[in-house]
Design brief:
Chorismate lyase, seven-stranded antiparallel beta sheet, 7 strands, about 200 residues, alpha+beta
Length: about 200
Amino acid sequence: MSGGCDGSPRWLTQAAASQAPDYREAPLGWLYVDRGSLTERLTALAGGRFAVEVITQGWQPLRPDECQALDVPPSSPGWVREVWLRGDGEAWVFARSVAARKALEAADFDLAALGDRPLGHWLFQAPAFVRGPLEACRYPLAWLPDGAASTACWARRSVFSRGPLAILVSEVFLPAFWPHAEHEQALIRQDGSGDTTGPL
């Protein structure tokens, strides 16, 4: 769990969220249930009409909550990659992936080479990456690209580690996504299959 006076949100594990009143209506199935690659799940939900659009990428100082998650000094330089994950032409998810410069150089890993390929899918296919616990928060509106939403959105993040390399992947679920998620949940309830243990 993290959060502080610098304006960073409080990222909570599922255990901590279960004790937080403001998480009672949270979409736990999407925030905390690890069903593998979000890319694959979104692709299925969109009927194959899925695309990644790179918004920006480059070197910049990492945010305080990111430095804490990656266990690096404050304001450490890192590679930041921000993308839209689009389903059926709509921006469903805003994803921000970051890694400290020293870790990337030590691992000889080039995030820029991904282009418009989905990072999450690659991480699940690549050998030896280990995923850390999922954490969730209400992602600050100020951290989203202009026009992405009109209020804070539910988000989740986790760290993927391999040797000296750690990549923090944050995924923010945008308003246009939820009608499709609700439709999927309704279909699951109708046929009695799948995970129906929690909201969405």
